[in-house]
Amino acid sequence: MTLQGYQLACTRGDRQLFSDINLEIQAGEALCLTGANGSGKTSLLRLLCGLAIPHVGEVCWNGRDIRTSREEFQRDLIYCGHASGVKDDLRAWENVAIGSRLAGNWCTKEEAYRALDQVGLGNVADLPAGALSQGQRKRVALTRLCLQPLPKLLILDEPSTALDQYAIHLLCEILDRHLALGGIAVYTTHQKLALKPRRLHLLDLNQAAPC
């Protein structure tokens, strides 16, 4: 299981955000993207999950271009964007269940309740998301990571934003279990996550070169 990027370049208008990005992430490994605001972190994540097309280069999953194996790739992927994507008028458990179903994975009310309980939100499962704090809404979005089976590739944009220390610790536990089972995690962050992958790749987009 491998996520690869070859000679990736991205432009926004007439500005080039980055170029010549090459990466190869194997099973059990993680890629941490850092860089200043506007350096292209979210843009690179969108390229890696197929939501945008690179100006130059290609992204491959298990040796196949994701543009020609989209259905297979999407089955193996969870993408959590910077915005929570939580609907205010839906209850917390409904956000979890419906979000999972839209991603192609059936989720019952009971499964949604159990997943919310794992992230410490069992007591607010029946509340509308609009009544929750920003941190609670972020945890509702990340509850997808507690549903089984978990796809092999997790791409997360600032997953720790708005989370307290308890929730960050819980997030790290979830990601470490995923990595220990041979999954792959790619994430952006402004603060260090204490993960224990087989190998941690670092890419600083301020310099647009892996280290």
Classification by helices and strands: alpha/beta
Spatial gap, N to C terminus: 22 Å
Number of strands: 10
- CATH fold name of the largest domain: Rossmann fold
| pLDDT < 50 runs, ≥5 residues | none
State the helical fraction. Answer: 25-40%
Query: Order of strands in the sheet with the most strands?
Result: 6-7-8-3-9-10
Count of individual domains: 2
The CATH superfamily name of the largest domain is P-loop containing nucleotide triphosphate hydrolases
Order of helices and strands: EEEHEEHEHHHEHEEE
Strand content: 25-35%
**How many strands, what sense, and barrel or not for the largest sheet?**
6 strands, mixed
Rg on CA atoms, Å? 17 Å
Q: Compute the number of helices.
A: 6
- Overall pLDDT: 91
Q: Give the class-level CATH name of the largest domain.
A: Alpha Beta
Which term fits the overall shape?
A: globular
Corresponding CATH architecture of the largest domain: 3-Layer(aba) Sandwich
Explain what you see.
The chain has six helices and ten strands; from the N terminus they run βββαββαβαααβαβββ. Helix content is about 30%, strand content about 30%. It has helices at about 40-50, 70-75, 90-100, 110-120, 135-140, 165-180; strands spanning about 1-10, 15-25, 30-35, 55-60, 65, 75-80, 155, 185-190, 200-205, 210. The chain has about 210 residues and is of the alpha/beta class. A six-stranded mixed β-sheet has the order 6-7-8-3-9-10, with helices on both faces. It has a four-stranded antiparallel β-sheet with strand order 2-1-4-5, covered by helices on one side. It starts with a strand and ends with a strand. Helix 3 crosses helix 4 (about 110-120). It folds into two domains: about 1-75 and about 150-210, P-loop containing nucleotide triphosphate hydrolases (Rossmann fold, 3-Layer(aba) Sandwich); about 85-150.
